[in-house]
Amino acid sequence: MRLAILVVATVALAACQSVNGPEHRPGNAPAAAATPQAVVHGRATYLERILLAPGATLDVQLIDDTVADASNGAAAAATIASARWNDLHGPPYDFALPYDPSRVDANGRYSLRATLRDADGRLEFATERRVDVVPGTRETVEFRLVRAAN
Predict the structure, then answer these.
(1) How far apart are CA 62 and CA 75, in angstroms?
(2) How far, in Å, CA of 144 to CA of 127, rounded?
(3) Of the candidates 131, 139, 146, which has an alpha carbon nearest to the alpha carbon of residue 96?
(4) Cα distance between residue 148 and residue 50, in whole Å
(5) 3-class DSSP assignment, residue 88
(6) CA-wise closest residue to 120 among 83, 150, 92, 79
(7) Around 81, how many Cα atoms within 13 Å sit in the side-chain half-sphere?
(8) What is the pLDDT of residues 72-108, one digit of tens each?
């Protein structure tokens, strides 16, 4: 009897879970099933003692710094992966950013950029500078977002 109650409770709780994962943006077609995926794990936070209203979004990009540094027009080509997490509730914001490992060079330099927008799309917080990352490691990249000048 206890086992049956436990199973029913587990299924009921699982059904209540909201999946809040990456959205692929237009122009970033999802990788084909044959392409192996890797993930950068991260945690973004800010120090201000405020809570954004429901509906906030976190955008994170994995950037190839060698391409981004080459010229001003290379920003789009420098983006290896990007994802958006919607309807966030209070920091810290844990994320897992999937990327295509075939686009990563073992000798390359990579960073993360992130923005946090309120429910109306206004920029509230962003990374102040590049957040260095080594794709392929299992470590969680932790960084702080700073208040955007409005």
Answers:
(1) 11
(2) 7
(3) 139
(4) 14
(5) strand
(6) 150
(7) 24
(8) 655 667 899 999 999 888 899 999 999 999 999 988 9
